[in-house]
Amino acid sequence: MNNPTVDRTRFRYPLRWRVMDSLEEGASLIWPRSLSRHTGWLLLAPALLLVGILVLGLVQIAESSLHTLDTSTYLPSENYTGENYLTIVESATYLRILWRSLLGAALTVVFTLLLAFPYAYILVRTSSALVRKGLLVILFLPFFIGQVVRAYGWLIILGNSGAVNEVLGLVGVEPIRLLFNYPAVIFGLVQYMLPFAVLLLAPALTAIPQEIETAAGSLGANWLQSLWYVVLPMAKPGLIGAGLVVATLSLTDFAMPAMLGGGSQDFIANAIYDQFFRTANQGLGSALALVLVAIGSLIVGLVFMIFGAGTLGMGAKK
Amino acid sequence: MFMSDLQLDSASRAERSVAVSVRGVTMDFGSGSPAVKDASFDVETGSFLTILGPSGSGKTTLLRMIAGFQKPTQGTITIAGKPVDADPPNRRSIGMVFQKLALFPHMTAAENVAFPLKMRRTNPAEISGKVEKFLNLVKLDGYAERRPHELSGGQQQRVAIARALVFEPELLLLDEPLAALDRKLREEMQLEFRRIQKELGVTTINVTHDQREALVVSDDIIVMDQGLIQQHDRPVGLYRAPNNLFVASFIGVSTFIDGTLTADGLKVGDLLLPGSATPEATLGAPARGAVRAEQLRIGAGPEALAGCEIEMDGKVEDVIFEGERLIYVVGCERAPDIKFQIYHHDPHSFDIFEIGSPVRIGWHGKDMKIFNHDA
Ligand SMILES: Nc1ncnc2c1ncn2[C@@H]1O[C@H](COP(=O)(O)OP(=O)(O)OP(=O)(O)O)[C@@H](O)[C@H]1O
Ligand SMILES: [Mg+2]
Prior knowledge:
The complex is a heterodimer of chains A (about 325) and B (about 375).
Chain A: H1 4-9, H2 15-30, H3 39-65, E1 69-70, E2 75-76, H4 83-90, H5 92-125, H6 129-145, H7 147-158, H8 163-170, H9 182-206, H10 210-218, H11 223-234, H12 236-251, H13 255-260, H14 268-278, H15 282-307
Antiparallel strand pairs in A: 1-2
Chain B: H1 10-15, E1 18-27, E2 36-44, E3 48-52, H2 59-67, E4 74-79, E5 82-83, E6 94-97, H3 109-119, H4 124-137, H5 153-165, E7 171-175, H6 183-200, E8 203-208, H7 211-217, E9 220-225, E10 228-233, H8 235-240, H9 245-250, E11 254-262, E12 265-268, E13 271-273, E14 276-277, E15 286-292, E16 297-299, E17 310-321, E18 326-332, E19 335-344, E20 358-363, E21 369-372
Parallel strand pairs in B: 3-8, 3-9, 6-7, 7-8, 14-21
Antiparallel strand pairs in B: 1-2, 1-4, 4-5, 9-10, 11-12, 11-15, 12-13, 15-21, 16-20, 17-18, 17-20, 18-19
The complex binds adenosine-5'-triphosphate and magnesium ion.
C-alpha cells in the first residue's frame, strides 16, 4: 500500500497557490466577494484621488487668480475681479511670451519629429544588434544627466569662449553669440525632447511589419514613396502621440528658456515663476498658470477631435 | 521502360518561349552550407511552376532572389530575356503575393489594388477602370470600400492577388500565401489561382510545402531539398517517375524495402522482387525499392489480387479510417522488418479488415521503383 512511487507522482499543491489562497482569504475579509464587481473601481481609486487633488489645487489657483495684488499692503484684494486676465490680454509683453511659447513648442515638435523619426526607424529596422545597442545607449545617456545639468553643459560648450567658438576660432572665425537667443532655446528643447520622441515612435514603427515595406517595394514604390504612402500613415498614431507629448512638455518648459535664453527668451512657465517667486503677485501668476492649462487642454482637445482618441492606440475606436 | 509514357507532350514544350531563366544561382548566407546551390531552370511563358520542398530547403530564398530582394552569391537570373541582376525589386516587373499577404491596413481594398498603379503614375481614370476590372476578376466587386480587417481570410487573399496582378507584371510570385488558410478554403483558393492564372496567362512561380497543392495547380514542379533541385518535371512525371529516393518519399505515401540490386530486381534476403530501377542504380549495390500505397493490393484471399506478380500473406497491424479510403498497415512473415502501407478504396463494399486479421497482399512488379541507396 505504502508504495513510494505513488508519493512521487502525487500532485503537490504549489506553495505560490497556498500564499495566494491565504491572501484571497484575507482580502475577502476586507472586501467581501459580493463587492467584487466593484473591484475595478477600487483599483482605479488611487489614480482618481491623485487627479482629484490636482483638480482641487487648480480650483484654488482659479480662486486666487481672481484677486489682484494690492500694491499698498502687498496682500491679495478682497473682492473678486477679472483684472488679472485683462492685464495679460492687454500686455504686449505677455502676449509676446505666449506667442513665443506656442511658436517654440511648434518648432520643437517639428524639429524633434524630423530628427526622431529616422533615429527610431534605424533603431527598429537595423539588423545589427551592435548598432541597436549603441543607439539605445546614446538615447538613454541624457536621461541620466538631468535637464539642469544638461543645460549647464550647453552653456559651457556654446559660450563665447566655449568649445564651439574655440574651434571656429581655429579656422579664423570671430566668436559668435550662440547663447541667450531663441534658436539656442529651441536647440536645447529639441535636444531634451529627442529621447522621449524616439521612445514613443519606436513601438509604433515596430508595429509595421517589415514585409509591408518589402511589399510596397515589389509593387513599384521607391523608398520615398514607400515612406510617404505606407510607413508614415501607418506610423500616424506614434507621430501624434510623440508630437503631443513634445508639444505639452516644451510649451510648459522652464529650465531651457531660463538657462539658454538667459532671461531674454522667457516662456510662460518663466513668467509664472517670476510672478510667484519674484514679484510675489500670486493673482497674476495664477491667472497665467490657468491660461497655460487652458491652452494646453485646447491643443490636446483639438488633436483628439481631429484624429480621434483611437489614433493614439487608446481604445478600439478607429 | 515504364517511364516513356510519362514524358508528356515534350515536343510542344520546346516551341514555347522562356519567361524566366535561372542559371547557376547560388545563395550562401555564410552560415553552414548554402541555402540554394547551383540552381538552373527555365520557366515557360504563361506556365505555372511550383517550387516544392520541406521547410528550410531554400524555396523562399530562391523566390526572393527572383523577386530581387536578395542578391545571389553566384549566377544569373533573366526575366523576359533581360538579365535583372542589377535591378532592384521596384524595377522588375513582378507581382508578389506574400505569405502574410502584407496588405496595407490603412487603405481600402480598392486603394490597395490601386497602389501599384499609383506608384507607376498611371492617370486616375485608367486607375479606377483597372481597379474595377481586377476586383471583378477576383470576385470582390462590392467590397471595394472595405479595409483589410473588415474582410475574411479568403477575401484578403483575393485583394492580395488583384494587387499583385493589376499592373500586368511579367511574372507572378507566390510565397505560400495559402499556408495559413483552413483546408477547404485553401483548396478553393488553389483552383482560384489556377483559374486567374489561366485567364490572364501570366507566368507564375509558386512556393509551397504542400504536395497536394503542387500536384493540383502546377504545369511544372521543382522539388528542392537542402538547397538542391532534386527534380524538375511535370506533376505526372514527378509522381510516377521520381528521380531519387527523396522525391519518392516526399511525394505520396510509399512502402520502402531495402535490399541489393540484381539484374532481375531487388534481392531481399531470399526474396527476389521484380521492379524498375532508375538509371543511376548500380547492379550489386545496396538499393531501396518503393511501392506506392495505392499500388499495393489487399484482399482476404488470392482472388482479390488478380494479375499481381508478387503476393504474400500478412496480418493487419493497424487500420486508419480516412473517410473516402482506409489505410492498412500490414506486416508479413516473409519480409519481417517492413510495414506495408496500403490504401484501400472499395466503393461497393464497406468491409473493413480488423486489426489482427490475416490478409493477402500483392503488387505488380513494374510498380516497384528501385533507387540507389547508401546504407
Ligand atoms: N537572411 C538569412 N540569413 C541566414 N540564413 C538564412 C537567411 N534566410 C534563410 N536562411 C537559411 O537558408 C535556408 C533556407 O531558407 P528558406 O527560407 O529559403 O527556406 P524555405 O524552403 O522557404 O523554408 P520554409 O518552408 O520553412 O519557409 C535555411 O536554412 C535558413 O536558415
Ligand atoms: Mg519559406
